[in-house]
Every structure is written in structure tokens, then in C-alpha cells.
Design a protein that fits this description.
249 residues, 8 helices, alpha/beta, disordered N terminus, 45% helix, 7 strands, Rossmann fold, binds NADPH dihydro-nicotinamide-adenine-dinucleotide phosphate
Length: 249
């Protein structure tokens, strides 16, 4: 059965980087919404991924892999009506410390990956309608210390989000979510690099008016809403989910 394009629920959805963390929570939420879900990562299919989720081993920094991901989703479930660009990596370095390998890794996953999947899906969405949700970051708007390439890569994601909304509406809606601290492997790794990880965690928490860090499910709920018809007048926008961190800065 070919998927319906702009349905509030039941999307044919591709979520990049669904092996763990935020991406996995998005996969679970879209399934609960009644969607047919395809996800990917660079490694093998995770053992705990539900059987009805199609896994495609793909590195989105590679254009051919990204095109194959979208093609396999279409073959399995029909026209992709929702793309969630979640795959991302973080390198904690200043510009002066960053190597060519760091540049390749961060720009590869965060920028090239987002571009590749959007380019692959836009002809389909232009014909059938669709929604793109890019996972940006508050780091795309503020200079998180020692995160130079990451900060710049997320600013790229935000810029691409606006351009897609402008160039491909009304068939396609495109928005970005800007998470703050969401407790995943990526966030834990960042704390682990601090001179005093426990003090860093305490200090960061104290700057959150919400009184807690975010959970992957907080982001997944927002993706679900942006993907739904409830958000049909929302495009080219940025939804900040950071527990008030940037409001308090
Ligand atoms: P994790 O490191 O926990 O998960 C990242 C996911 O992306 C994994 O499934 C990983 O799988 C996949 N991935 C990474 N590179 C590639 C690639 N080149 N091709 C395909 N898959 C890839 O990160 P989070 O869940 O924390 O982060 C998810 C997104 O949210 C990222 O874009 C991140 O920048 C953003 N974000 C996270 C915040 C946080 O506090 N956690 C804050 C703000 C934004 P594998 O390694 O197997 O390829």
C-alpha cells in the first residue's frame, strides 16, 4: 500500500540515526503514532529494534548510502512522507585543535548527511507532499565553548531548514528542533570530558529553569507534533527544547 502524504498519523517515515538516543525515541514514538518506520546507522541492526522497523545500514555522509536509504524505504512502504534528520556527531574542539578528520566527520554526518537525505526525498515529497524535521541544536545559535565545528554544522542545518521551507512549500513543510541538553550517549560523553564531570553536571543543571535535563522522549513528542496536521501552518521554524537554558543565559 502506498503511504498517505500529509496524514496526521501513519506516516511513512525515515529517521536517520535511530540506533540509540534521540533517534531511537523518535522511531518508537512514530511507531506508536501508527507510522511505518525506516531507520539507519553506520553499524549493524540493533538487537532491540522492533521487528516491523526496517533497518538500513547506511552512512548518511555518503550520497549513495543516503539515496539507497530513501529508495529502500519507498520500496518497502511507499512514498516517504516524513524525514527526520537526526543522525549527528559531536567533536569537542576549538578551530585550532580540529583536524581534517574532525571536519570530515562532523560536516559529513551533520551537514552532508542532512543535505543528502533532503535532496533524495524532495522529488518524492514535491509530488506527494511531506514533512521534514531536522534536529538542529541550540549550539547552532550560540557558541558552545570548544565545539567549533559542531556549532557551525548546526547553523548550517538551521539555514538549510529555512531554505527548504521557502523553496519547496507548500508541498513540503520543513522545521527544525533545537534541543539543549538531552541525556543520551552524546551528552554523557560531553560531561565525561569535563575536568570534574560531576561538578559540570551540577553546574549545567542549575542553569535549567525546568529543573532537569531533557530526555529523548521530549524531542520525540515534538517531532510527532511537527509531523502532524496540528502543525500544518508551521514551516521554516525552530522549536527550542532546552528546559529554559537559553532563556536564562
Ligand atoms: P547519539 O550519539 O546518542 O546517537 C547518534 C545517532 O546517529 C546514532 O544512531 C548513530 O549511529 C547515528 N549516526 C551518527 N553518524 C551517522 C552517520 N554518518 N550516518 C548514519 N547514522 C549516523 O546522539 P543523540 O541521540 O544525543 O543526538 C541525536 C541528534 O540530536 C544529533 O544530531 C545531535 O547533534 C542532536 N542533539 C543532541 C543533543 C543532546 O544533548 N543529546 C543536544 C542538541 C542536539 P551509528 O553511530 O551507529 O552510526
Amino acid at each position: 500500500m502506498r503511504g498517505s502524504a500529509l496524514a496526521g498519523t501513519g506516516h511513512t517515515a525515515v529517521v536517520t540515526g535511530g540506533s540509540r538516543g534521540i533517534g531511537r525515541a523518535v522511531v518508537d514514538r512514530l511507531r506508536a503514532d501508527g507510522g511505518r518506520v525506516v531507520t539507519c546507522g553506520r553499524g549493524a541492526r540493533p538487537d532491540d529494534l522492533p521487528g516491523d522497523v526496517l533497518w538500513v545500514q547506511a552512512d548518511v555522509s555518503d550520497a549513495d548510502d543516503a539515496a539507497r536509504l530513501l529508495a529502500e524505504a519507498d520500496r518497502a512502504f511507499g512514498p516517504v512522507s516524513l524525514l527526520v534528520n537526526n543522525a549527528g556527531v559531536q567533536v569537542e574542539k576549538t578551530v585550532a585543535e580540529s583536524t581534517d578528520a574532525d571536519w570530515g566527520l562532523v560536516v559529513g554526518a551533520n551537514c552532508r548527511g542532512t543535505f543528502h537525505t533532503c535532496r533524495a526525498v524532495l522529488p518524492v515529497m514535491t509530488e506527494h507532499g511531506g514533512v521534514i524535521v531536522n534536529i538542529g541544536s541550540i549550539s547552532g545559535n550560540v557558541a558552545d565553548p570548544s565545539m567549533a565545528l559542531y556549532n557551525a554544522s548546526k547553523a548550517f542545518v538551521h539555514g538549510l531548514t529555512r531554505s527548504i521551507a521557502v523553496d519547496h512549500g507548500p508541498a513540503v513543510r520543513c522545521n527544525a528542533i533545537q534541543p539543549g541538553w538531552i541525556m543520551t550517549a552524546m551528552a554523557e560523553d560531553a560531561f565525561a570530558l569535563a575536568r570534574d564531570p560531576e561538578a559540570a553536571r551540577r553546574d549545567a543543571l542549575a542553569r535549567h529553569p525546568a529543573g532537569r535535563f531533557g530526555e529523548p522522549a521530549d524531542i520525540a513528542k515534538a517531532v510527532s507534533w511537527l509531523a502532524s496536521d496540528e502543525a500544518r501552518y508551521v514551516t521554516g521554524q525552530f522549536l527550542t527544547l532546552d528546559g529554559g537554558l537559553t532563556a536564562a543565559s
